[in-house]
From TrEMBL:
One Pfam family of this chain: 4HBT
Domain Thioesterase: 120-191
GO CC annotations on file: cytoplasm; membrane
Protein name as catalogued: Acyl-coenzyme A thioesterase THEM4
Reactions catalysed, as given in the entry: decanoyl-CoA + H2O = decanoate + CoA + H(+); tetradecanoyl-CoA + H2O = tetradecanoate + CoA + H(+); dodecanoyl-CoA + H2O = dodecanoate + CoA + H(+); (5Z,8Z,11Z,14Z)-eicosatetraenoyl-CoA + H2O = (5Z,8Z,11Z,14Z)-eicosatetraenoate + CoA + H(+)
A GO molecular-function annotation: hydrolase activity
Domain of life where this protein originates: Bacteria
SUPFAM superfamilies xref list: Thioesterase/thiol ester dehydrase-isomerase
Amino acid sequence: MSGIPMERPLLGEDEAAALSALAARVRELAEATVLTAVGTAEAAAVAAEIEALTARLAAGRRDAPPFVPSGERRMDRQIGNPVTGALNPLAPPVELTVGSDGIVRGEFTLSTVYEGPPSYVHGGVSAMVLDQVLGMAAAASGTPGMTATLETRYRRPTPLGVPLSVEAKASRVEGRKVYASGTICGPDGRVTVEATAMFIMPQRFVPHS
Ligand SMILES: CCCCCCCCCCCCCC(=O)SCCNC(=O)CCNC(=O)[C@H](O)C(C)(C)COP(=O)(O)OP(=O)(O)OC[C@H]1O[C@@H](n2cnc3c(N)ncnc32)[C@H](O)[C@@H]1OP(=O)(O)O
């Protein structure tokens, strides 16, 4: 069992917008931190200011990341998600849409905070993005589930700082199992990473089980 409660408070529109704007500033801070060359004294002074700002935010603390009321699909509500969540400074965030053809698509750019090999995206970050997008494709098929397997094939390096596209689709459903596949492409449209995955709806979530 997780130590984080399942029940979540729902954010209103104004609070979601304000906290998303805060997360955007923290994302900028993370990149500025990785790239800064201000010197040790200035870095120490900024660290002290950030410590004070963190204490201000922690003065009112929730037990778990909040949700927003869902749109058409329940999967839209996790605003703290590390891939798509506007509220999460660790998320790029990747904005995804689900087409009437069941294909989940998104465009995103990854900054230097996601660097693996110099000037390229970390392979684990690509896998995380694909896990999310394939998982949403599985959910869009009507059978959401937990990732049971995820296989990635890194065809060529994925560049940082340029627009990337990602898409995925569920290929088949077998009872509680859903199979999905997808790709990340560079700005030239060539595939950099391919993935296939299998998601399983836990027995406890099966209606009337
Ligand atoms: C659910 C709601 C989610 C909402 C999502 C919204 C979209 C957001 C997108 C989010 C995206 C991000 C998502 C994330 O990040 S999810 C986080 C990463 N994934 C996990 O933490 C999953 C951990 N594992 C489990 O919870 C359980 O093991 C699961 C749920 C996977 C199965 O436990 P369950 O008790 O249900 O299984 P069972 O024992 O009755 O077996 C049933 C069948 O499955 C077969 N099998 C089992 N495991 C595996 C395996 N690993 N590989 C291959 N096969 C496996 C098994 O042989 C059997 O086959 P058969 O004998 O019937 O042929």
